[in-house]
Amino acid sequence: MSAGDTASTELVEHTRLFIGGHWENPAGTDVIEVVSPHDGHLVGRVPHASTEDVDRAVAAAREAFDHGPWPRMTVGERVEVMGRITKLMSARAREFAELITRQNGSPISWSLTNQVMGAIGHFAVTAQAAAAFPFEERKQGMRSPLVVRREPVGVVAAIVPWNVPQFTAASKLAPALAAGCTVVLKPSPETPLDAFLFAEIAAEAGLPEGVLSVLPADREVSEYLVGHAGVDKVAFTGSVGAGKRVMEVAARNLTRVTLELGGKSAAIVLPDAATDDVVRTVLTGSFLNNGQACVALTRVLLPSSRYEELAAAITEAVAALAVGDPLKEETQVGPLVSGRQQARNLDYIRIGKEEGATLLLGGGVPEGLEAGAYVEPTLFGDVTNTMRIAREEIFGPVVCLMPYDTEDEAVEIADDSDFGLSGAVITADVEHGLDIARRIRTGTFTVNGFSIDLTAPFGGYKNSGIGREFGVAGLTAYLEQKAIALPAA
């Protein structure tokens, strides 16, 4: 912890902000209180950054980019620092996981394997990609030799959500740092504590002065950061509505943007699919992180010829999920992040009933867990694609089972969405599944299962976003290209 901060199993409290690599007193007196979604108890308290703090952080980042050593280091030197970050994060992985779980209710096993190890994976994969990347190359042009350079885009505002806070932060920090950028990280008010822990690690790893700031704040201060003239690029993960606002504000300065937004992804179950494969895909792809995942498979398309059989198997499996305290190892579904999110889910469940969908399972608050922001794992059957529960992102453990008659109809239903982020097909014929994958307009897709690969481009079509993250694709999003013409021989 930084000097002046205290921590215990009951409360994590920070009194200062991490600005330009130093722990600084905030300009204002407002604070953010982090409340456990499991029982409502206070988990932590941090300063609420102000617009003045944003000015200080951007100025430090600007100075570090324009005159500091970080962009001028060799790639190998930057990768070395990233390697130290990876080792330090690994050593404190359990601490990271417990912080995240206490803030947003992710089951601890999922926090450790996906939230934290996934974040560590981003740094490892990006470092490997950067070490082999052609930042400068010579080629023959039409009339003369050329040098083509890939240079860091500059000062980056990285704005991350509460559902996978460390994972999404790493998906931006790792490529930005590898490219030579400086970063102002804006964590969500619901989950700022793990970002402060990362700041400690970055300082210990030897990240130079000015390269990183961490400013938790609300939407008003976030918008000020997005519109700041000193910011060269905004990397944002969040809702479609907020993403549109980010793009609108960033456009005033022609600031570059990467937007990773929402999803309403479909899993197409073909008639030849094995029941066990269907159930496994739904459990891992639909209810991950308590359903609070943009990539979640929230529409499951079942062939009419097997609808009753498969719906029964899925219902039985979902009913067996262990719901409860997210810090317990056996828990598979924990609370939603807040009472606000709980109310949103319960409202959509009401809408689904009113629309005529069949409630197969769940639909309320689990008995004995009324003190937290819990919603029972919920299945709706006989859902049509015109219903709001099939078209709008609910962001919770609410899944729609939808019958279809023909394969072409299934593809049409899957594509009939404002989103295009993820998807899956389950079939005994992998090559045929690949043919289906090629027909769906979505950024990531899995044949038989549910998988997100950190080395593959990640992002969405349509309202699911602009640009790609992860691996080489993510690295290039933080680079500008420069062409230098040399004299002809």
TrEMBL record:
Top-rank taxon: Bacteria
InterPro entries in alphabetical order: Ald_DH/histidinol_DH (IPR016161), Ald_DH_C (IPR016163), Ald_DH_CS_CYS (IPR016160), Ald_DH_CS_GLU (IPR029510), Ald_DH_N (IPR016162), Aldehyde_DH_dom (IPR015590)
The protein's enzyme class: oxidoreductase
Pfam families: Aldedh
Assigned EC number: 1.2.1.3
KW Oxidoreductase (keyword) present: yes
Taxon lineage: Bacteria, Bacillati, Actinomycetota, Actinomycetes, Kitasatosporales
PROSITE patterns in UniProt: ALDEHYDE_DEHYDR_CYS, ALDEHYDE_DEHYDR_GLU
Organism encoding this protein: Streptomyces populi
Protein name (database record): aldehyde dehydrogenase (NAD(+))
Gene3D superfamilies to which the protein is assigned, alphabetical: Aldehyde Dehydrogenase, Chain A, domain 1, Aldehyde Dehydrogenase, Chain A, domain 2
Entry's family note: Belongs to the aldehyde dehydrogenase family.
Catalytic center residues: 260
The UniProt record lists the keyword Oxidoreductase: yes
Catalytic activity field: an aldehyde + NAD(+) + H2O = a carboxylate + NADH + 2 H(+)
UniProt-recorded Gene Ontology molecular function terms: aldehyde dehydrogenase (NAD+) activity
UniProt KW keywords: Oxidoreductase
SUPFAM superfamilies xrefs: ALDH-like
Residue ranges of domain Aldehyde dehydrogenase in the record: 24-484
